[in-house]
Amino acid sequence: MQRNRRPLNPEHQLSHLPMSGIIRSRIKRLFTILGGLLIAQVVIIWAAEDLTLFESAWMTMTTLVTVGYGDFAPQTIIGRLSTVFLMFIAAITLLTLIVSDYIEYRFYRRERILTGRWIYAMKDHIVIINTPQTGGEQYFSRFASQMRAVPGYETVPIIILTSQFPNGLPPELADNGLVHFHGSGSDPEALKAVHAGAARHIIVLAADESDPTSDSLTFDIAHRLSESNLGQKVTVECVRDENRDRFTSVGVRTVIRPVRTYPEIMVRSVIAPGSEKVLEDLFNYQHDHPHRYEIELDDLNWADIVSALIRHGIGTALAYIDNNNEVVCHPPTDKEIEGKGLIVLVKSSETPDVEVVKEALSHYRDFINKWHNLQKQTSQEGSSAANAADQS
Q: What parts of the sequence cross the membrane (predicted)?
C-alpha cells in the first residue's frame, strides 16, 4: 500500500531537519564506513599476500581510485575475493556516493546563498538591517567601498539582513564581497542567523526614508537589539528628529538622519561616533553652517588664519579658495596662504559679515608683527648683553 512505501531518499524521513546538516552527516557516515573497509582490505592483503604494509596500502588506494597501475595485484584467493567484495563492490560504490553527496551539497549551498538562506559563520563583522527604498545597490556599493578604505576595515565582512533580493544579490554587490540573509530585523531568528551578537557594528536603515512611520519599525528592531545588550553597537536612521530621544532611551549608540546620497556620512558615524552630528550640522542652516567670505589672503599661514577667527569668536576655518578657484581643504599649517576666499563654519544666528573677518585678520597681523618685533628686541638685547660680558 502507498502508506507503507519507503521514501525515495533518507532525507525525506527527516524533513524537519536542515538539509545541509543531513547531507554533511551522511557524508561523514559514508567516510567512516569507507575508512573501515580500507583498513580491513589493507590488513587482509598484508596478511594474505607477500607484500609490506606500505605496498598493501598502496595497492588498496590505487584500486579505490581505479587507477590500475598494475605494479601490485593480489595473487591469493583470499586477496582476490576481498578485493572484489570490499573494493570493487563496497568501497568504490561508497566513494561514488560520497562524491554525489558532495556535489549535491555544493548545489544546495549555492541555492541557499543565492536566495539569502545560508547561515555564515561570522564574527567581528558589520550587519546592515533593511534596504533603501530606491538606489539600494548604489548605496551598499558605495558604503562597502568607503568602509573598506578605513584602516582596520579593509577585509571586514558585511552582511545585509533584508527581505529584498530574493533571487540573489546584484553582481556588483556580490563582487564587493557583500552577502545577505533573507529576513526581517524584527525576527529574533533572523538576528541570530546573521550573528548580531558577534558583530562589530549593527546598522539599522530606515525602511522608508521619506515616511516618518518607518521609525516605528526601526524602533522595534532597536529595542530587540537593546534587550540583547547590543545597543552600544547600533547605529540607526531616524526620519523624525522628535523620535531621537526614544532611540537614545533604549541605549542606541548613534542616531542619524537618512542621507541616501552620502553613505560616507553613515560610515563616519559608525567609525567615529559623534562625527555625524558635525556632518549633519553642515547640512542644517538652523545651528551652524559653512559660509563663504570673499577676501584676499596673502601674508598669513593657515594656523594664523584659524587662530585669528577662533580668537575673535567668528568661527572655524574649513578651507580657502586659491587664485585658481580651487577649494583647498585642510592645507599645511605653516605654509603662507595665497587666495581670494575663505570657507568658515559660523553660527547661523550670528553670521559675521566680511568686514568683521577682515578686521580679525588685520588685528592678528598686528599681533604677529608685534610678537616678531618683541622677539627681535629680545634677541638684540641678549646679543648686547653677551658682547658687554665679553668686553668686561
A: 30-48, 84-103
Query: Is 367 exposed, middle or buried, given 0-12, 13-18 or 19+ CB atoms closer than 10 A?
Result: middle
User: Is residue 113 within 8 Å of 179, Cβ to Cβ?
Assistant: yes
- Residues of each domain in the chain carrying CATH 3.40.50.720: 126-282
Q: What is the pTM assigned to this prediction?
A: 0.69
Q: Which residues is 320 bridged to in the sheet? A: 328, 342
Strands, DSSP E only, in the chain? 126-129, 158-162, 178-182, 201-204, 234-237, 254-256, 288-301, 316-322, 327-329, 336-347
Is residue 332 a contact partner of residue 324, using CB atoms and an 8 Å limit?
A: no
Angle (CA) 161 165 169, round 5°: 90
> What CATH number belongs to 126-282?
3.40.50.720
The residues of the chain that CATH labels 3.30.70 are 288-374
* CA dist., res. 61 & res. 39, Å (int): 11
Q: Three-state SS for 239?
A: coil
Instruction: Fold for 288-374, please state it.
Output: Alpha-Beta Plaits (3.30.70)
Burial classification of residue 148, based on how many CB atoms lie within 10 Å of its CB (0-12 exposed, 13-18 middle, 19 or more buried): middle
What is the assigned CATH class of domain 2-112?
A: mainly alpha
**Residue whose C-alpha cell reads 598484508 in the numeric block:** 46
- Asked whether the beta carbons of 163 and 194 are under 8 A apart, the reply is no
Cβ atoms within 10 Å, residue 312: 16
Provide the pairing of β-strand 336-347 with 316-322. Answer: antiparallel
pLDDT along the chain (392 residues), means of 10: 45 49 85 92 92 92 83 89 89 89 87 88 94 89 92 93 90 90 93 94 93 93 94 94 92 90 87 77 70 89 90 90 90 88 86 90 86 77 64 60
**Rounded Cα distance, 234 and 245, in Å:** 15
